[in-house]
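Structure, all two chains, one model.
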Amino acid sequence: MQLTRRDATAALAALGATGGIAYGARHFTSDDETDADDTDANTDASDDTQSSEGDDHLRSTLVAVAGVLYPNEVEGIEGFVNTFLDGRLDDSPHAEGVRSAIQTLDEHAEAWYNVKIVDMESETIDGLLREIGADTADEDPNGPTAERIRYYVVNELLLALFTSPTGGELVGIENPIGHAGGLGSYTQGPGGGQ
Amino acid sequence: MSGRDRTPVDDAEVCVIGAGPAGGLIADRLAADHTVVVLDAGPRFDPSDRLERQERAIRPSYDRPDVWDGDPERDAHAASGEWFYPLNHARVKGIGGSTLHWQGMVMRLHEDDFNSESARGVGVDWPIDYADLRSYYAAAERELGVAGADHPYAPPREEPFPMTEFEPSYSDSLFADACERLEIDMHPVPNARNSESYGDRSACVSYGTCQPVCPSGAKYDATVHVDRAESKGATVIDRAVVGRLEHDRDRVTAAVYNTPDGAEHRQKADVFVLAAGGVETPRLLLLSESDEYPEGLANSSGLVGSFFMDHLFAGMGGLLDEPTRQNHVGFLTSECHQFYNDADAEIAPFKLEFFNYDGPSPVTMALTGDDWGDALLDRVRADYGNHIGMGALVEQLPTEESYVGLDHDQTDPFGNPVPDVHWTVDDRALRTIERANEIQREILTELGVEITWQVGPDNTGPAYHHMGTTRMSDDPADGVVRPDLRTHDLQNCWIASSGVFPTGGAMNPTLTIAAIALKAAGHIDEAL
């Protein structure tokens, strides 16, 4: 399934963003985009969102991690994650938590594998996350490393996916919790009928 | 109120304590013609933070009280009863009160609910009847904005609901066939939630997180009326913790409150309205004991805090071998009052609810699992989509063993003893939970559901409706407030709360709270 800018903006609309919603079109090429209605909004605002070099690395790292966390049939991950991050990487404490968690993750990668995450194979990233304990940890923004990685990295990315319409459709719910999908879907049967 | 000025208002005519639906409605009704000040112990929340609160509602690391900045120290409480009472899961302190996290179901009590003793042989009769509240119910439905439709089991009404009802869900349609075969009627739920735009609030857009937060504002909350009261000139002071009511024998003279800067203030007024709910209102009266009222203010009857009631939950659900389409919306669209009016001394009134959000949602499953990638996808696909369930609310009787008191071993940050919710439940309520379970099992079995969970008499819990602790009565010996909601003892002190309910019925109480608040507002206006 193809993730679109609409999915990223929907995830941001569910979780809160500080001005990033209008900016995301730059991350999608026409090949990525499957919804014609999604392609024509506010593309000229992208100059305002040029991120720092540090955030560019952060973005690349989160895209690489999303490639592990998201199911194989999901496509368009890079554009989706970058658009989502446009709205999340502000100067808020939450964004600082994401930056700090990624830095911690990279430090573990370099200490254990002598390489940064962006240069790792997917299998190695998967192993690193499990070795840290992010698979079995309960998320906690103030907890030890595994719980912070779970909160700011693993669940941050899973939250984005599963509050988006395409993420919902993957598992049979086109209007997932958190998404303001309107009053149409709850009356419809599995085939779209009443 | 802008800035941080939390000093008292000069020459106030009305001081309202509690900025929930009762306090908000009364302030709104009186603000145009009177000088009104509203004090609330909790903060004023920024409407622009609601998406952040929604994220807290979805993320597993946040507990329910975290969504609305619950403060365990400020909100400390005891639960000494036979049944533990999770008070801080049941309430929100702040401007808007517990309507910020409520479900938004707004039914009128049935006619017999006002005459429990004479009609059912148990409990007590209210000193007012349904007819006395009928016009206030209609006004309350307009004020809150209620989407609903009439049905044969509801009490008589004089006009249509302000908004058309929400359509039945797909899940409802699955239940409908089974219920029809069993000759059990389903009908729409009245929702304080916009099925179309209402005033300046939008129609519901289905965020699906109604309880505990509606980011769109389509679900009514009391900030609607608090904001309106302010626009008419009322002053609202947040984080003003009232710890005592100064008084003489006949009148309250001032509300003594603390503010975050450590200051203590005294708000004087001609009239005081206690609208802090069924727990904090009796607590404040008990904290205000004096030589004139050694057992607590307005407590000549000795009944302040007595007869604490909640509604009991009964439920059942399981798995169906076809998609059930749960978790698209966070509210209910169908229920059944067919058995409600059969209530007697043995079986309490109860209503049945048909869920639209049974079972886990995919995002919750994703955030709490030990897997990701294709393994996560396989697990969610296997576990989401076939759940289906029912609920029920059951009346509990007022008993002296169930009460709100003070725990003198614990104090809040200002040195005041914390509330102790000493909750017990009567046998009739437990029998009724069994009866509700029987009908739920019958329906689910007819539908072909593999039943996997049940909430019965052994594991039931409260619906977070605090009732009975400042009972309404004709005779001053039998209650705390008169039928006009003024306290029997004090000439200038009114109570607007579900605490005044002599019995609880089995209907969610907020519409009746709103109706009573509007009735009280009229009486207060006359008194002024």
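Chain B touches chain A through 51 residues (CB under 8 Å).
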